Amino acid sequence: MWLVAQGVNAEAEIKAGDPITVTIDDQHQEACSKDMLWLDYKNLIHVIEPGKRILIDDGNLSLIVREKGRCLFASCSGVSR
User: Fold this and answer.
1) Checking CA distances to 31, which of 9, 14, 23, 79 falls within 20 to 30 Å?
2) Domain containing 31 — which CATH number?
3) Is residue 14 included in any domain, yes or no?
4) pLDDT tens for residues 56-79?
5) For residue 22, pLDDT beyond 70
6) Where is 16: in which H helix or E strand?
7) Residue of 48, 45, 40 lying closest to 64 (CA atoms)
8) From CA 78, how far away is CA 59, in angstroms rounded?
9) Half-sphere exposure of 77 toward its Cβ, with a 13 Å CA cutoff?
């Protein structure tokens, strides 16, 4: 579960090709946006590599990892509704 900075019921529109930073840093837990996504899977940074996909919301959102550092830099590869 992630919260958009504007509140629990706010929505963030993410389109295919949009860049997004994925973080496991708890300071971003309630400050997500279309540019920053917090995930609670602390081991993610150790098990994912550039070129791999992160599937979110049962695969409704698919991200491709572009760069790995303290955060993951990814781009949206698809949104399914």
Assistant:
1) 79
2) 2.40.33.10
3) no
4) 888 888 889 999 887 777 777 766
5) yes
6) none
7) 48
8) 9
9) 14
Q: How many CB atoms lie within 10 A of CB 60?
A: 11
Q: What is the 3-state secondary structure (H, E, C) of 37-61?
A: EECCCCCHHHHCCCCCEEEECCCCE
**Integer-rounded Cα radius of gyration of the chain:** 12
Matching residue, tokens 């708890």: 26
54 lies in a domain? yes
| Confidence tier at 45 by pLDDT (50, 70, 90) | confident
Domain that holds residue 57: 19-79
pTM to 2 decimal places: 0.76
Residues 6 or more apart from 46 whose CB is under 8 A from it? none
Give me the sheet containing 72-79, strands edge to edge.
36-38, 19-23, 72-79, 61-68, 53-56
Is residue 67 a part of any domain in this protein?
yes
